[in-house]
């Protein structure tokens, strides 16, 4: 009888081991755009899910939670650090609350175009930056994607010069660097979380805001904003972030799948957002906004006011080293002021 019990116990242990080996590793993947395929973050997420699950023969189960279903950016980033959220695609302002050097990308008017930005982000600077973030936060930055080139909108009047911003209340991301940027141009900044922005604009809590066209369209901000100025003051980013606790628990095959598939997701995300950026004037005009496209000289007037102030802020907040490295990387990639 005892022998039978021992054999049964051995069999159950073996069965448990087999079941555990067969159970997929769940990857909770959250982002902050609507769960529609016309949204860059979600289209990229769906591609990533298909790619990873195929490449790992289902050993990773990717579960997508769009529209901030797992909480705001701060909650998601804390989850990444603890390993309770496996992957999140988070905007720059949110990331800087956990890793302040991310604010360096908000240096205004630093990237002249998409091509220069991609060279910098996908090159040595981007890798060095990601390695430093991993060391400090235990969050692994897998890829940089576009959050759209940021422009000013408002409900009061056209903005053609920095003087036109004076007296306006402008919503910014809850990040000091964006407060510094808006103040440098003479407007009054108000830090409001993304989820509360449409209501704040509709109720007149603020007069305007600054965002990429993708986000303006996704949240229908044009419904309460009459005027847009395509000044392109910040090349805003999303980052693909994975919990290093989770990543280190993957097999080599699974790690390779994640690393490969995130590039596919990144490129879908970038291409969709870039296309919207390049069509900004028509897109916003078609929904009833009055759009102003500043000349190079007019952009220079904004840059000459904003960049020195924000650079000084960044040098104090995140260190002159990161600022100088970014400026040099942009110059090496073919950008110039």
TrEMBL record:
Entry-linked InterPro entries: DctP_fam, TRAP_DctP, TRAP_DctP_sf
A GO term from the CC aspect: outer membrane-bounded periplasmic space
Main location per the UniProt record: other
Transmembrane portions of the chain: none
SUPFAM superfamilies membership: Periplasmic binding protein-like II
PANTHER family, per the entry: PTHR33376, SIALIC ACID-BINDING PERIPLASMIC PROTEIN SIAP
Name this polypeptide is given: Tripartite ATP-independent transporter DctP family solute receptor
Organism: Mycoplana azooxidifex
